[in-house]
Write a structure and sequence with these properties.
Elements (H helix, E strand, L loop, with lengths): L2 H13 L2 H17 L3 H8 L4 H22 L1
Amino acid sequence: MRLNDLQELVAIRKGLSERDSDRISKEVERLEANHRNPLEKVIEAFEPDEHTKAAVEWCSGQLILATALDCK
C-alpha cells in the first residue's frame, strides 16, 4: 500500500460511527470463526467434468515436463 492509501484508510476509519465499528467487528469475528476463505469452499465444492479433469492433468504434465527440461 502507498502512504496515500493508508492515509485514506485512517480518514475513513475516523469517520465511522460506533454502530459501523460494531458491525465491522461482528463481521470480522464471523469470518474468523470460519477460519476459511470463502473461495476455498467454492473450489472444494466444484466438481469438474471429464474434460476439465483431462485439461488439469494435461497442464500438470506440461508443468512437470517443463520443470524437468529446465533442470537439465
